[in-house]
Amino acid sequence: MDDSSLNNQAEHEQISTALEVERLEVNLFRSKSLWMPTRARGVFGGQVISQALVSATNCVNPAYGLHSLHCYFLTSASPATPIVYYVERLRQGRSYASLCVKAVQNGSMIFILMCSFQKPEPWQPSHQWSMPDVPTPEECDLEEDHMLRDSNGDNITARIKHILKLYADERTRSPIAIKRAKEHEIAADGSTRYMYWMKAKNIPPYEPHFQKCILAYLSDLYFISVAGRILGLTRYAKGPDSLAMSSTIDHAIYFYDDTVDCGDWLLYTMECPRASSGRGVMRGQIFTRGGTLVAVTTQEGVVRANIRGPVEEVKVPTKL
């Protein structure tokens, strides 16, 4: 890893610098730091989403608040080269504004985001699902503490111990704290739901538009791993139970609160309704600790077991 990549890893420990972009022109922005997680294929997707969102937010009238985003990851990004974000204003209406952000690295488009902003209508009726009953954040342990305990367990190989300690160190330095609210919960219909408390570490009371960018960042944490867990795949296993590849294809967020504070604990529930053909789809809900449902998320990703498919027969065209 070169010096610039090491600096990016250090800068990523603060959420403010992890999301920071440099404005080059009216609609053109450039990343200032990029972070690649341990054993990952490229830059953390949540950082790309949030930097693109910061860029878009800087190009919209502040009277409009973000209410949804949809994005596609076209290829993995390298942490060694800055990403350039080009914002295109698609529509400006009386109630809604639509923008598109294209992310380019080394001359190739790597990511595209569509986002929509709305003038708030708090006088309209509202409805939400209830928050699950889980232990409070104060009753739960940090993820890095779970990992360190697991690394000292019986029958743990030196290789797995090393990997767990790498993950624990990464979690300790992350700008987002995570606590396991419940190992998992099986509903009456047989579906399995995973639940985590998450919050940004040591942040001041940012404005609502930036809070939503932080929320977009943390919405990608642990999400795709749910599909692997449902399928019984892990990176530690060997053979058909080994997780050979996981990578996000697309991600969507629907925001339903303009007062969310990511500096306080948020409950993120995750489930995987379907996984097949090397893909999995996840569905999530993010609640404040007071029970307000602030965002709904969906994601699809590549989730492949270490299984080789049938070899395709090469057909040689016959001569006339």
CATH topology description of the largest domain: Thiol Ester Dehydrase, Chain A
Query: Which value, in Å, is the CA radius of gyration?
Result: 21 Å
Number of strands: 12
Number of contiguous helices? 7
The rough form would be described as: globular
Compute the separation of the termini in Å: 56 Å
For this structure, what is the CATH homologous superfamily of the largest domain? Hotdog Thioesterase
Give me the CATH architecture of the largest domain, please: Roll
List the domain count as a whole number: 2
Strands side by side in the biggest sheet: 1-2-4-5-6-3-9-12-11-10-8-7
Family: Belongs to the C/M/P thioester hydrolase family.
GO biological process, one term: acyl-CoA metabolic process
Keywords: Hydrolase
GO molecular function: fatty acyl-CoA hydrolase activity
Q: What's this, in brief?
A:
By secondary structure, this protein is an alpha+beta fold.
